[in-house]
Design a protein that fits this description.
By secondary structure, the protein is mostly beta strands. The protein has no helices and seven strands. β3 and β4 form a beta hairpin.
Length: 99
């Protein structure tokens, strides 16, 4: 008797491991304007931002600004992203690759 293998966990399909985060993220979307949130986790391929349910549609290109404070300074970085998935608590963004 053959048994079906269990479905792979979504986490198993990820290319990059995620790390917990907590810094401030600002999402800039042409239609929705500015959305402020907090990074829940980040990886080499993307970031999940808690936004209280406000999110651009999937596949929307957006720009984000990351604000990370250290004991010595505050650092801001801007990155281009694409909305990969939406959830009640926020949005998953995939970092756009430079061409």
């Amino acid at each position: 008797m053959l048994r079906a293998s269990p479905k792979p966990n979504r986490m198993d399909d990820r290319r990059h491991s995620r790390r917990p985060a907590g810094f401030v993220v600002t999402i800039y979307d042409r239609r929705l304007g500015t959305i402020r949130g907090r990074a829940r986790n980040v990886s080499a391929g993307g970031i999940f931002v808690e936004t209280s349910g406000i999110a651009p549609p999937i596949n929307t290109p957006v720009e984000i600004e990351l604000t990370r404070a250290t004991h010595a300074s505050t650092r801001r970085e801007r990155l281009e992203c694409v909305v990969a998935h939406c959830a009640d608590e926020g949005v998953g963004l995939m970092f756009a690759l430079a061409s």
